[in-house]
Specification:
By secondary structure, the protein is an alpha+beta fold. It is built from six helices and 15 strands.
Length: about 270
């Protein structure tokens, strides 16, 4: 049976020796609950299947038993994926808020960590920070892990015996490695401070756009990204979409990262906030 999902999360791609390039894709079901679609090699999808954030899609899903995170599902048949309605930003994101508001919104990070680690009740959540204190930029490795790349190339050579050259190139189509890590430092309702990395595709795409606009000047590009995300703090009612990583789920002191930022403009009165 087809499941309807409103895509609200696409993370920046990472390398996987098993699946080549991985994008964590997650979104809301029609009742406002979360679902993760994993694995999903987004950039290997056909063009007419490449969905956008805030687009409803329909696809054939089942629980992913190889992933202990409770919301994780896998696609039974990629050919079943159909792209449907795109929810725009009209009326200050009204249609998007309507769906987000159907689910739970947390303000206590300790509650989330306990639900993830102690009870395995969730690995995805909508979180409202009490205050955002800073936007932090850190330089990281500029190239993909060479061991993983070597494994993927060897895998492609093996596959080339059975695939066309075009199919092999499609298998190895990789995103550029981001040379910086971007994080929000924030406070929850109890004053607990946390610094979590933002792994959203949107921030990665913004960096490359700014770099091009700044004619390769990384310092200026990074500052433009920082200005944009601090501007959200000043002008927007921010919600953070949090997700645990498979590696740290269930045991890390804080297994969450920021997998999406929801930023409608501030309003004097809002049904969501």
């Amino acid at each position: 049976m087809l499941t309807k999902v409103l895509i609200s999360v696409k993370t920046y791609p990472t390398l996987s020796t098993k699946y080549n390039e991985l994008v964590c894709t997650a979104g809301f079901l029609e009742d406002g609950s979360w679902v993760r679609i994993y694995p999903l090699p987004f950039r290997a999808l056909e063009r007419n299947q490449q969905y956008k954030k805030w687009q409803w899609i329909e696809l054939d899903l089942e629980l992913n038993t190889s992933d202990v995170r409770p919301e994780s599902h896998k696609v039974l048949n990629l050919d079943s994926l159909e792209v449907v309605e795109l929810l725009g930003t009209e009326q200050n994101w009204f249609k998007r808020k309507e769906v987000v508001n159907r689910g739970d919104v947390y303000d206590d990070l300790s509650v989330l960590i306990e639900k993830a680690n102690k009870y395995n009740k969730l690995s995805l959540a909508t979180f409202k920070p009490t205050r955002i204190l800073d936007f932090i930029v850190e330089e990281v490795d500029r190239e993909w892990n060479p061991e993983k790349l070597a494994t993927l190339k060897a895998k492609a050579q093996q596959l080339s015996l059975f695939q066309t050259e075009a199919e092999v190139k499609k298998e190895l189509k990789l995103a550029d490695k981001l040379p910086y890590k971007f994080s929000y430092k924030f406070e929850d309702i109890n004053g607990k401070q946390s610094t979590l990395m933002i792994e959203d595709w949107e921030i990665g795409a913004l960096y490359w756009t700014c770099l091009q606009r700044c004619v390769g000047d990384e310092e200026k590009a990074v500052q433009q990204v920082k200005d944009k995300y601090l501007g959200f703090v000043e002008n927007c009612e921010i919600l953070l979409f949090l997700g645990t990583t498979k590696q740290f789920h269930g045991w890390a002191s804080n297994p969450f990262v920021i997998i999406g930022v929801f930023y409608p403009q501030k309003e004097s009165q809002s049904g969501l906030f």
